[in-house]
Amino acid sequence: MGEADTFQTVEESTEKPPICAKSGTYKGTKPETTPGYPHPDYEHGRDVFTIAHTLTAAQVAQELGVDVENGLTSTEAESRLQHYGPNKVKGAEGLSLWEILLRQVSNSLTLVLVITMALSFGIDDYIEGSVITVVIVLNIVVGFVQDYKAEKTIQSLKSLTAPESNVLRNGTLEKIKAVDLVPGDIVQLNVGSIVPADLRLINGMNTFTDEAFLTGESLPVEKTPAKIFSDENLPTGDRTNLAFSGSEMKSGRCTGVVVATAMQTEVGKIAHMLRQKDDDPQEKTLMGRILKKFISGVKTILGLVGTPLQITLSKFALLLFGLAILLAIIVFSTSKWDVGGEVLIYGICVAVAVIPESLIAVLTITIAVGAKAMASSNVIIRVSSAIEAVGGVTNICSDKTGTLTQGRMVTRKAMIQGIGVLTVEETMDPYDPYSGYVTLEGERLDLAGYSPSPLLARFLRTIALCNLSKVEPSSGIRANTVNGSDKKDTSDRMGSDDDRDTISTQQSAIITRPTTASSNKIGRGGPWKANGEPTEIALHVLAMRFNMGREDILGRHDVTLAAEFPFDSTVKKMTVVYKDNHSGQFDVYTKGATEYVLPVLNIPESEKAKILEAADSMAAGGLRVLCIAHKTLPLDSDLSDRDTIESELNYIGLVAIYDPPRIESKGAVRECQIAGITVHMLTGDHQGTAKAIALEVGILDPTAPDSVLDAAVMQAKDFDQLSNEEVDKMESLPLVVARCSPATKVKMVAALHRRKRFCVMTGDGVNDSPALKKADVGMAMGTGSDVAKDASKMVITDDNFASIVKAVQEGRRLFDNIQKFLMHLLISNISQVLLLLIGLAFKDTDNHSVFPLSPIEILWVNLITSSFLAIGLGLEESQSDSMFRPPHDLAVGVFTKELIVDKFIYGFILGSLCLFSFALVAYVGPGGGNLGSGCNEDFNDSCDVVYRARATTYATITLLLLVTAWEVKHFSRSLFNLYPDSSRPGSSSRVPRGLSVFPAVWRNRFLFWAVTAGFVIMFPIVYLPVINRQVFKHSAITWEWGVSFGCVVIYVAAIESWKAVKRRCGIGSGRLRVLSREDAEMRAGLDVGGQGRERK
């Protein structure tokens, strides 16, 4: 975000509501000072905000020097604006084109290639220099295009509009741009307004705000202007007498005084955390700061910052560069430092041979293909290197609302007097009354032909008629149409088009979300949409399951609305009275908070105690519980007195709602556990709700003792109070942290890093952004805030935790494949270095060393032959047991001991066979021993033997590299049994053991055709006139093909023998069989084949 952007991005309602005046409302008095109130300085302003929730509104107004009845004067407001500056928050900056370009060139391998290119041009080898130049440009362009496309995709998810606010100035209500607000301004808000700054509320009526983007609270928060708190360190979400910048008014009206703007707001503090580069202490001296910046710049240029793979490859490139210099020194030393033209070319040729020029291009293309595959799984990659990084994740820190849960309320159960317990199961779309099923006392109901009993019908009538929501099939609207509370971003909100003050009409706006896997099942009427308050929608959908929705009842029965008593925060109840024209009586339907409805029920105290106990039990399980009641009145009853109407009610039952887990969440969490990944839930929600969801999705073990569960769940304030040393002494970090602040999430990430863990952080709110940036891989939700997207490396477009698991699987596939093509490229380089170093002994008649391979042959093999084979290896499918293995060792990275040993063994064998083929033709074949003169530069009559030997060597190395591409598909399995499952009884594609080589090589089509193309192109390179002698410096061969193909047989036999030794002796991957799901479940302590966990 640019500096001019703000988080308040939706225009507020244009209606100017009256100032609320209720009992207990603060009537401000004019401060004793004259109108030119002194400015509260920044330090003082911050102090006022820090303790604003512990002061009365009058005290806050006095501190800020403002008359709440008249507001600031225009002159004073302008003066304060000059002092405080505009009300703008600096967010996480998006990437510029230059930054994206710099990211492509900031790695050691590119710098090594640039140096090699310069040397090639320096010695007038324009062909080699041009080829390397093309490689460098290709590397940069492919990477730039990939990252640029990702940034454009993220930008398309954003939309910004400039908000205005209703502000009291000069005694009159004016519309002021939010950017011009100052501390001390009196702001009035109504339904649909976006809070423009942090406010200490002065008064309010039924005020509820959506703070999900900031605190993670899944439901709108009731505001209590009259309350005063004693705890200065109260969690942000519990400061209910404050309204926070960027939150949305969901119902009611209120007035507040601005106590903080811009970077001093809660959102601003988060933005400040985002802009902090690191946690290192600042250098105090000028030279120290300069040195620190210089070191940081050098590390960035050399690519020594980033993901583990980026850092490893950059270090590897520096090692290769040092090795190239060493090899060049060896070449020059053999000529006693008589560095003439040929010696210099040979030295550079050896240096070029040790550098895998195509590595960056292959890696970039492979990652780009992986990014495309992940996009189809609803994961957009902002930083391409994050794909491989996510494969090494050891811990996932996930938000709850909208990620593990559906982000919408659904009725979970109802305890109905005289009926029993009604439960809703497996709801995939909370708005669809045909989604999931209903059980009564554990028995599944067939609702198609079900006729409710009178008691059940009365319960359903009550929750349907005492309800102002509307649920209906959507016409031309996507399946995941949801209401405004699901949208945590303050950017793309729509104000309510209903200005009633009741909480029942909080959510009148419709906002669409991307289709998720959990909502693809559409009910009989197609996709469904809903308007209204989340609780009422959930109750209405339950009634509609029995064909007793509000519209159904009003259409079938002769009833009319006689009176309505809306929800009020003082009585916590809502009541409607309907006239039944058929029976000639009034029906009173009431719902509300249990503790407020119980006193007006006409039942014994003992029964009330039992009801309260049942309600508390459900509430402890994370459910929001309402009490349902009813009574009848004669037609001559007075309907004007609410207290009379809401008395002597008949108890019907309790109903509990909650934000249900996504259907996929439990399975996805289990997949993570099977893969050796620990899942943590960090949420702003309450501890009871968080614990209940964690148990339901499997983050917590339902069979574990209470002592174990208590240790795994912590309040954020308790976790925050621990020092780093105390956190590090904990045997394991908590799996669930409730009431999280942004600092809590950052602290958890830092604690994981100190334990050498590699973590993914998910989030959607502004409050998640600092942790998203701090984490190894930050994943923002597609419907989340723009700030969260800017701070992340990936965006989950469907907000689904299961998509994270797919991303991890793709990352593991990519990591495995990077090892495979690294192995292939390095085998080629090692064999060439061996060939060229020992080739120093091949002297011509002028006592000059003869190239066993010409520089162009080396570049052709490295850039063309090997590149496409490496890309093919990068496209290998995921191994069947990739998600059954623990995460790979990040300290070791891609260069495992097995890879290092294998590449030297393979490279030695391949290089030796190339030496053998050259020596056989040059010294044993016809004309052997005569290596001519000047054969490194051009062809002459004395070069026939050298050119034929060189062509044979080229053919040999090409053929061996083609075979190597298939051999390195697995480091220990035989090429003739790469897929053991395919030869087992019962396999759908069973082939005889030993013959599986044919489907194995055909399985990866790209690799198959890359091998085929490499084989076919080899012949014109050897035989085409001009190209063979003038460009590649070799000539046509005949009987020598037998040497090359003979080397292939020897090579395959040697490699297969080495793999057999590895399997026999249990070396490297040879000690591992194909892991099964049962193996992984046993390792994770899960019930094999089940959904629960074993008791430990």
UniProtKB/TrEMBL annotation:
Comp. bias intervals (Polar residues): 1-11, 503-521
Subcellular location: Cell membrane
Domain of life: Eukaryota
Keyword Lipid metabolism: no
UniProt xrefs under Gene3D superfamilies: Calcium-transporting ATPase, cytoplasmic domain N, Calcium-transporting ATPase, cytoplasmic transduction domain A, Calcium-transporting ATPase, transmembrane domain, HAD superfamily/HAD-like
Region (Disordered): 1-39, 476-529
Family matches, as PROSITE patterns: ATPASE_E1_E2
GO cellular component: plasma membrane
Transmembrane segments annotated in the record for this chain: 105-123, 129-148, 316-337, 343-369, 821-842, 854-875, 904-925, 945-966, 1006-1024, 1036-1054
Record keywords, A-Z: ATP-binding, Cell membrane, Ion transport, Magnesium, Membrane, Metal-binding, Nucleotide-binding, Phosphoprotein, Potassium, Potassium transport, Sodium, Sodium transport, Translocase, Transmembrane, Transmembrane helix, Transport
SUPFAM superfamilies named among the record's database cross-references: Calcium ATPase, transduction domain A, Calcium ATPase, transmembrane domain M, HAD-like, Metal cation-transporting ATPase, ATP-binding domain N
Catalytic activity: Na(+)(in) + ATP + H2O = Na(+)(out) + ADP + phosphate + H(+); K(+)(in) + ATP + H2O = K(+)(out) + ADP + phosphate + H(+)
Topology relative to the membrane: Multi-pass membrane protein
Cofactor annotation: Mg(2+)
Main subcellular location: membrane
InterPro entries for this protein: ATPase_P-typ_cation-transptr_C, ATPase_P-typ_cation-transptr_N, ATPase_P-typ_cyto_dom_N, ATPase_P-typ_P_site, ATPase_P-typ_TM_dom_sf, ATPase_P-typ_transduc_dom_A_sf, ATPase_P-type_domA, HAD-like_sf
All copies of domain Cation-transporting P-type ATPase N-terminal, residue ranges: 51-125
Family designation: Belongs to the cation transport ATPase (P-type) (TC 3.A.3) family. Type IID subfamily.
NCBIfam families according to UniProt: ATPase-IID_K-Na, ATPase_P-type
Name under which the protein is recorded: P-type Na(+) transporter
Organism annotation: Massariosphaeria phaeospora
